Amino acid sequence: MTLRSLSIGGATYDLFLSMNPRIEESACDGKKIIFDLGKKIPIERIVESCGGGASNTSVGLSRLGVQAAFCGIVGADQWGEKLLKNMQKEGVDTKPATIVEHETSSFSLVLLLSTGERTILYNSGVNEHLQDATFDTGFATDADLIYLNHLCERSCMIEDDLLSALRKKKEAFLAWNPGGSQLEDGMQSLHIQHLLAHTNFLVLNKEEAMRFTKTRDTKEAMMKLKTTGVTHLCITDGPHGSFGCNRQGAWFCPPLDNVRVVDATGAGDAFGTAAAWALATGQNLPNALIAGTLNASSVVEMMGAQTGLLSYTEIQSKLRTTRLTTTPLDW
Questions:
Q1: Cα separations in angstroms, 56 against 2, 144, 150, 208, 267
Q2: In 3-state terms, what secondary structure has residue 229?
Q3: Residue burial 109-141, b: 16+ Cβ < 10 Å; e: rest
Q4: How far is the C-alpha of 106 from the C-alpha of 82, rounded, in Å?
Q5: Can you list the alpha helix ranges (DSSP code H) found in 99-180?
Q6: Phi and psi, residue 126, nearest 5°
Q7: Kindly report the CA angle at 317 between 311 and 322, in degrees rounded to 5?
Q8: Which of 71, 119, 140, 252 has the greatest count of CB atoms below 10 A from its CB?
Q9: For 18-68, how does the pLDDT look when each residue is reduced to its tens digit (9 = 90+)?
């Protein structure tokens, strides 16, 4: 039976500006892009692309053979039209989407360096309007897999409706990547605890995990998150690999060798999408970590958050032939 999924969260139209600006680095502040005020800054290449958490995960799941739907908001403008057309072209059902008149779709200017590093100038636009009034509980109740992406503070109002839908369909698989105010509230907040208790797969990057748990390292964050009732949890650490944990144990998955990073945008969404797909289709957590790594590695080798997302056939082939293996951890 084909899985049905619903991705909840943002859709953003991205404009990539490929450039080589002056970089300054210090021990205190890290790297900074430096622009001289009043001067023209040369741009090597401009690329338009679709992104945003729920847009990325719905397209990623659709490519993996899932009957995917998108629950988010776009403006009635050229960017919103392109976002919806892109998802529809990828086989994503956009009926749960809300279109807002006279407001601007979420938009990003991505300053992309030759190293693959980037700085994002972002306007959330209509994404701030995703709340209970625009949340389609019918689609949520019908879904086998719900992927909850980053939400704006006002959008967190949908959490109660989501919990209601999950109680109606207890076998539904919830994958969650907290963001924004959810990370700020932290895992001890009562409404967060209710959501964590229904979460089958929690995925955070290292910085998000430490902020969410108010801890200082990956192991400490993992140990605190284990107490929440989450079935499977994962902490990613970019080019340093990923860590996964469930009731059966904990594992480390190294990064894939010889990956040429062109653009890291969307790597986290790609990882979470493939890992959630693997778990929701009955695969174990170590295999899910490998699937996530393969998908993320493919995405970072191309410009844009969705270009390199793997198809079902591609990921199955890579899973059969990869030499990537996980290491059990004594945690």
A1: 20, 18, 12, 19, 10
A2: coil
A3: ebbbbeebebeeeeebbbbbbbbeebbbbebbb
A4: 12
A5: 137-142, 159-168
A6: -75, -10
A7: 120
A8: 71
A9: 888 888 887 777 788 888 889 888 898 899 999 999 999 999 999 999 999
Tokens representing 280 are 């929701």
- Amino acid occupying residue 246: N
**What is the value of pTM for the model shown?**
0.93
Q: Which tokens go with 187? A: 């895992």
Residue 101: CB atoms within 10 A of its CB come to 8
Distance (Å, whole) CA 295 – CA 311? 9
Task: Report which residue type is found at 53.
Answer: G
Torsion of CA 65, 311, 268, 255, to 10 degrees: 130
φ, ψ for residue 200, nearest 5 deg: -85, -30
